[in-house]
Design goal:
Pectate Lyase C-like, 10 helices, elongated, about 775 residues, 15-stranded mixed beta sheet, 4 domains, alpha/beta
């Protein structure tokens, strides 16, 4: 009886388990049927089912084929060949086969999702250099994302990134041609998978938008809209994304991680990832790639130090569109936006969707418009027109451009980079780009308004002219690059002359930059940098210096007191000593700047402030001299024509003991009533003494007490009377010693005030 109950119970459990298994398999079968259709029924398929017999899919049985019969989609155990494909969005409704795109001019013409999938499979079949051009917008899954960026429903199609299964990388050119791909769903929690339109690439993606798409998974590495990882020489340009990116590490809105170049791109989607390793555009971690002219929504959840965050209003106003075009409006621009209609820039548009920069004079207000407003009268602010953003052209005098503001400096940079490598320039005033650029620790305080392009960066040749600072200072330059080919500094590459110039409150380079410096990233043989100084931040990886990154020319009479951060093996305080045969003469650096050099002298902050460095630098004087206001606490040497700021060495001798210090033309002598000071010629000096050269001042002891005019050993009324007779002209004091004793207040004059002081001393 017990055995029967047990067997009955066991049977019930078995039936329950089978029922549960059937339900699970049924649910899984539904999920499989909702996935991307497949026609694999060639014996390699994993799942089978004998229709009409099997209740659910199994590992054995008859293969199931997907066919269309009289316009109806059905499944069959009979493999019916498809003679006439019926394509919907590039996928045959009869057999699931993908439409083959046409090949024109060496590029596959993609017009639908099926052709895009075909191209993915074609590339992954080891055709890594295949090219493609979109001829229409492509949609995979419609309305894929919710407003919060999550997936709205189980996608019909799951996207396999191009290049995911390759040991090689995509090397071709994928041209969006201004079109948009939407509804891609690339999900993976495996950090080896790489999620994006592409997995791995070192080719080119351009002129493409990706919207309403989802890439990654919470544990995914290398997730992004366009490529999980871009290697050296990869290029992504003129692209945008309004999609969701979800991952763990090395993720970005545009590309996960890259050592290539990303330019003229923006991201306005939602990105969720570890901010230490991921960023709004591309991961900055272990990333030496270049980001140029890229922007992201301030609401996307992550940031980027190499791109600019913009608000929803800035995107909709046309500002970002104008910036993406690099301010070009002559018909060659790529980006368009119908203001008042389009919330974001687009790649295809009509002429009347060109965005222009405008200025309302009546309201002193900048704005953007689809209507061109001609600038008939430039309104320059710091050399940049408020109305049209054009640059002020400097005057040309005596063969040199006269630079007095930042706009003229930028004009000169563009003029040189247009091929005028021998152009000369002279500063006629101090120039400021960004005000208060640096924090006290040397880092950048805020996103700079102006980014500096070094003179000569785009040249195959080098700057060969003369750039004369004329004793002036340039401040607030921001020259940032992660590309070791770029060279950061006032100049990129030069073999001309830079002289008489100070650069302060400026920033040059990045952690991954090669050849970063204040004045020139790279100076070849024949170059000269003289009488220059810098109090700026230099950040780089190799071949960096406070004055020049690497030089084979000459650097003389220069100093650096900023903050330099770079590999000390290849970088130094003044200029890289690695593979460097240039000459460093009479150069100095602040010992606490971050690096040192054996070819220059380290000095303390106290030595700089005392006048010590200024005095040594002035050995090479011309119309401009090294000067320093020694009465101002913490002052540093400057180039000046002000004679009052010249620095002299004063040696004082007293009781056969001597000491030296530095002084401006006004020298304060220690007060001492027991004697007086004379110069080398025996001339009596009064404090403050006027000096015009290095001098030795000797203390002479009085034989008598100060005020004892008649030198009888005591100060009395008779001495005061002698002074009064001298003042009235009755009886002049002619003896030099007596005159010195009579000048009680030591002002260099004998007058009634001295007589009063003598009477006071006599009374005491």
């Amino acid at each position: 009886m017990r055995l029967q109950k047990f067997m009955s119970l066991l049977l019930s459990c078995i039936m329950l388990c089978l029922s549960f298994q059937a339900n699970c398999l049924s649910i899984y079968a539904e999920a499989l049927s909702a996935a991307e259709p497949t026609t694999d029924s060639d014996g390699t398929q994993a799942w089978n089912k004998s229709l009409g017999t099997d209740a659910y899919p199994q590992f054995s049985g008859k293969a199931v084929s997907y066919i269309s019969e009289h316009g109806e989609e059905v499944y069959s155990n009979t493999n019916i060949s498809c003679n006439n494909h019926s394509y919907v969005n590039g996928i045959c409704k009869t057999c699931g086969e993908y439409e083959v795109p046409t090949l024109e001019n060496g590029a596959y013409q993609l017009s639908n999702y099926g052709e895009l999938v075909w191209f993915q499979q074609y590339v992954d079949a080891d055709n890594t250099g295949a090219n493609a051009v979109l001829t229409a917008d492509i949609t995979a899954n419609k309305n894929l994302l919710k407003e919060d960026g999550s997936v709205s429903d189980v996608p019909v199609y799951k996207w396999t990134p191009i290049g995911r299964d390759l040991k090689l990388y995509y090397t071709g050119t994928f041209d969006g041609n201004g079109h948009i791909i939407s509804g891609l769903y690339s999900y993976s929690d495996d950090y080896y998978d790489y999620c994006g339109l592409f997995a791995k690439m070192k080719g080119t993606i351009k002129n493409l938008g990706i919207v309403d798409s989802y890439f990654g998974g919470k544990n995914c590495y290398h997730a992004a809209s366009f490529a999980g990882i871009g290697y050296l020489n990869s290029v992504i340009e003129n692209c945008f994304s309004d999609s969701s990116v979800v991952g763990s590490m090395y993720c970005g809105g545009i590309v996960g991680q890259t050592t290539g170049k990303i330019s003229n791109c923006y991201y306005i989607g939602k990105i969720t990832a570890n901010s230490t390793y991921s960023n709004a555009i591309s991961s900055d971690k272990y990333n030496r790639g270049t980001l140029e002219n890229c922007y992201y929504s301030s609401e996307c959840s992550l940031t980027s130090s190499r791109a600019e965050a913009k608000s929803r209003e800035q995107f909709s106003s046309g500002e970002v569109c104008f910036l993406l075009n690099k301010k070009v409006t002559d018909g060659s621009q790529i980006w368009y936006q119908k203001l008042g209609t389009d919330s974001y820039p687009k790649l295809n548009g009509a002429d009347d969707e060109t965005v222009y920069y405008c200025y309302d004079r009546s309201q002193n207000k900048k704005f953007y418009s689809n209507t061109y407003i001609a600038c008939t009268e430039h309104i320059y602010e710091n050399g940049i027109c408020l109305a049209c953003d054009s640059l002020q052209k400097p005057a040309l005098e005596n063969g040199a451009y006269q630079l007095e503001n930042y706009g003229e400096l930028v004009w000169f940079q563009q003029y040189v980079d247009a091929g005028n490598t021998g152009a000369n320039a002279v500063l006629t005033a101090d120039i400021t780009a960004n005000k208060n650029l640096l924090k006290e620790d040397g880092s950048v305080s805020d996103v700079p308004v102006y980014k500096w392009t070094p003179i000569g960066r785009d040249l195959k040749l080098y700057y060969t002219g003369t750039f004369d600072g004329n004793g002036h200072i340039i401040s607030g330059l921001y020259s940032y690059s992660d590309d070791y080919y770029d060279y950061c500094g006032l100049f990129a590459k030069m073999k001309g002359t830079i002289k008489n110039l100070g650069i302060v409150d400026s920033y040059f380079g990045s952690e991954k930059c090669y050849h970063a410096a204040s004045f020139a990233g790279y100076a070849v043989e024949g170059s000269v940098i003289e009488n220059c100084f810098s109090d700026s931040s230099v950040v780089g990886y190799a071949y960096c210096g406070g004055i020049a990154g690497e030089t084979y020319g000459k650097i003389s009479n220069c100093y650096y007191i900023g903050k330099i951060t770079a590999d000390s093996t290849d970088s130094n305080a003044i200029s890289s000593d690695k593979y460097n045969y240039g000459a460093l003469e009479n150069c100095y650096y602040l010992e606490s700047c971050g690096l040192s050099t054996t070819r220059a002298v380290g000095k303390t902050a106290e030595q700089f402030a005392s006048g010590d460095v200024c005095y040594i630098l002035k050995s090479s004087e011309n119309n401009l001299v090294w000067g320093q206001n020694l009465s101002s606490e913490g002052s540093m040497p400057v180039l000046t024509s002000d004679e009052e700021l010249r620095v002299y060495r004063v040696t004082t001798v007293k009781d056969d003991a001597s000491s030296s210090y530095y002084s401006n033309s006004s020298c304060t002598l220690p007060a001492d009533d027991t004697g007086y000071w004379i110069d080398e010629n025996g001339k009596v000096l009064y404090s403050p003494a006027k000096i015009t050269k290095d001098t030795t001042i000797t203390f002479k002891q009085f034989v008598s007490v100060l005020g004892d005019v008649n030198q009888n050993g005591k100060v009395e009324k008779a001495d005061a009377a002698a002074v009064l007779r001298h003042v009235s002209g009755i009886s002049l004091i002619s003896d030099e010693a007596e005159l010195l004793l009579a000048d009680v207040n030591r002002d260099g004059n004998v007058d009634v005030r001295d007589a009063v002081e003598i009477i006071k001393k006599a009374a005491a």
